[in-house]
Amino acid sequence: MTDTLPDRAVASDQFRQALAVHASGVVVITAQCDGAPVGLTAASFSSVSLEPPLVSFYVDRSSTTWPWLRAADHFAVNILASDQAELAARFARKGIDRFAEPTRWRAGPLGAPLLQDVSAHLLCLPYETADVGDHVLVVGLVAEAAVHGPGRPLLYHQGRFGRFLAHPES
Ligand SMILES: Cc1cc2nc3c(=O)[nH]c(=O)nc-3n(C[C@H](O)[C@H](O)[C@H](O)COP(=O)(O)O)c2cc1C
């Protein structure tokens, strides 16, 4: 670390290495657009505000899913459970039908696809977007929230999927 403020951004590989140390939960954002289901895996999901209830994620501007998501009147956040690493990988893979077998899903009450066996679903109305660097910040107003499982999360760390182990003293 330097003891004076640098006048430039950190090198890309140093940036990536540092970010990889940060563990995150994994969600799949889904929507229904022109009758077709769309979705992508995101680790950038975060809570934003309690009143009003807001959540956010960042989507790469080069994402081919983003134009469809942007056009949708609502979207779902599917919070993945610890045994859903393959599902997460599937919704990050290009050139496949992500909703084909073995993906199990159903249309939700407003139309957005809900993935089966996830820990929780949030149904969100578009609230705000902002261009930030090479990503778009997407903020959603949570209209409905449903918890399905015990909430054992799928985590992403150092480019690998893993599980949460509670500290024995906590
Ligand atoms: C664990 C994991 C987390 C990801 N998180 C994000 C994210 O937060 N934002 C994003 O734009 N892409 C993220 N991606 C990549 C997208 O899922 C993937 O690039 C995208 O689905 C590509 O397809 P598309 O061009 O059809 O959108 C992540 C991928 C993985 C495996």
From TrEMBL:
Pfam families recorded: Flavin_Reduct
Query: Sorted alphabetically, which SMART domains does this protein's record hold?
Result: Flavin_Reduct
Keywords of the record, alphabetical order, are: Oxidoreductase
Q: What is the lineage of its organism?
A: Bacteria, Bacillati, Actinomycetota, Actinomycetes, Streptosporangiales
Please list the GO biological process terms of this entry.
Answer: pyrimidine nucleobase catabolic process
Q: Which GO terms describe its molecular function?
A: FMN binding; riboflavin reductase (NADPH) activity
> SUPFAM superfamilies in the record, alphabetically?
FMN-binding split barrel
Q: Does the keyword Oxidoreductase feature in the UniProt annotation? A: yes
* Name of the protein this chain belongs to: Flavin reductase family protein
Q: Does the keyword NAD apply?
A: no
InterPro entries reported in the protein's UniProt record: Flavin_Rdtase-like_dom, NADH-dep_flavin_reductase, Split_barrel_FMN-bd
Record domain Flavin reductase like: where: 19-163
Q: Which domain of life is it from?
A: Bacteria
